[in-house]
Design brief:
Layout lengths: L1 H42 L2 H4 L2 E3 L10 H4 L2 E6 H14 L3 E4 L5 E5 L1 H11 L3 H4 L4 H10 L19 H17 L2 E4 L2 E4 L17 E6 L8 E3 L7
Antiparallel strand pairs: 1-8, 2-7, 3-4, 5-6
Length: 229
């Protein structure tokens, strides 16, 4: 009887040790994931993923045909608006084009973080910008242009909760065509010939929504061709 009790206690002890080990492992993975997300949120993922392309010199570096198929559908403005409210929560990119395929606005946390960082550099540091940084500055730093991001003050806050709150404010201002200060910087989406273009569109305006999902494998190298010029 005593032997059975001892065996049962040993089995129970073994199960408890296993559960504790699994729980500790899951905790460590969760902590590492949260830490890495926090780091990339702070330094800007775009700095590490900018201009990445596949080298297709051999068969190992091919993009699967299924990945190259885009998911296209016709939607209205009311469908686009929820996407703008989601982009900073789920960290995906939204690019809005007009009917002539001109890029009118970009919603991208990594890019906005780069714009905010570059805008805060001292004049001496501006002389040392990389080609990519120069392209970002020239594309999104021109006052009065459709793509002007007003130095992206919504991403300059110190805390993530503040960044999200300011980003939400920016999205609502863009949608409604408002002008106000965000984090101490005036952001103006009232002019339809500039950043206020989207807010003046009728609610039933048609858009072609293209959802692009991609993955990369093989020899990944930096591309010297810049996206924003």
């Amino acid at each position: 009887m005593d032997q059975n009790i001892t065996d049962a206690m040993n089995i129970l002890f073994g199960i408890m040790v296993f559960i504790i080990a699994v729980s500790l492992t899951m905790y460590l993975f969760t902590t590492l994931s949260n830490t890495s997300n926090s780091i990339f949120e702070t330094i800007g993922m775009a700095k590490y993923t900018q201009n990445v392309s596949l080298n297709a010199d051999d068969n190992e570096d091919k993009i699967d045909d299924a990945i190259k198929r885009f998911d296209n559908r016709t939607v209205t403005k009311s469908t686009i608006i929820p996407m703008l409210h989601r982009y900073y929560k789920e960290n995906f990119t939204v690019k809005i084009y007009d009917k002539n395929k001109n890029l009118k606005q970009v919603f991208d946390l990594g890019l906005e973080g780069e714009v905010s960082r570059i805008s805060g550099l001292l004049p001496s540091a501006l002389n040392k910008l990389t080609e990519y940084e120069k392209a970002v500055k020239n594309t999104f730093g021109k006052s009065g242009d459709d793509l002007y991001l007003f130095t992206a003050p919504w991403r300059a806050a110190g805390l993530k909760v503040e960044k999200d709150e300011f980003t939400k404010q920016r999205v609502e201002m863009y949608i409604n065509g408002f002008k106000s200060a965000i984090n101490g910087i005036e952001v103006d989406y009232t002019d339809p010939n500039k950043g206020g273009w989207f807010s003046k569109l009728p609610e039933n305006t048609k858009f072609i929504e293209t959802v692009v999902k991609y993955q990369a494998s093989g020899d990944v190298r930096l591309n010297t061709e810049e996206e924003y010029r």
